[in-house]
Design brief:
By secondary structure, the chain is of the alpha+beta class. It has one domain. The protein has four helices and four strands; from the N terminus they run H-H-H-E-E-E-E-H. It has a four-stranded mixed sheet. Strand 3 and strand 4 form a beta hairpin. The chain is globular, with a radius of gyration of 19 Å. It starts with a helix and ends with a helix.
């Protein structure tokens, strides 16, 4: 019985860790957390993975709404929301780029989900 339990545990362990995760997410989440998220909420996992490449863009900052925004340094071209220490929220986030007339925009969960749905429909 002990042998069967051990074999079952090893099989579960191997199957769990054989799942692929985006390594860029490992800066914020453990591999175990990501695998658990893949299994328990695949839509959320898809969202945070999609957001790595699609959540950030720059906008012209001459808008009066740019006054009073948190000022940040321009991130590197391949920076992700995780690299910036940000979390995808239910609303868009806006940051003024230091020394520029640009705003960094981090898209909301709704926007990202909408884009993902549109991308899936375009593939069909």
């Amino acid at each position: 019985m002990k042998l069967i339990s051990t074999l079952c545990f090893l099989l579960f362990f191997c199957v769990s860790f054989s799942q692929e995760v985006d390594n860029r997410l490992l800066d914020r989440f453990s591999r175990t957390e990501l695998i658990e998220l893949q299994n328990s909420d695949p839509n959320e996992y898809a969202l945070i993975t999609y957001a790595l490449d699609n959540s950030i863009y720059f906008s012209n900052g001459t808008n009066p709404k740019s006054v009073g925004l948190k000022v940040i340094q321009r991130p590197s071209p391949n920076a992700t929301y995780i690299d910036l220490g940000l979390t995808i929220l239910d609303q868009n986030q806006y940051f003024k780029i230091e020394g520029e007339e640009s705003i960094l925009v981090v898209k909301s969960k709704w926007v990202l989900n909408h884009e993902m749905g549109k991308a899936l429909n375009d593939e069909k």
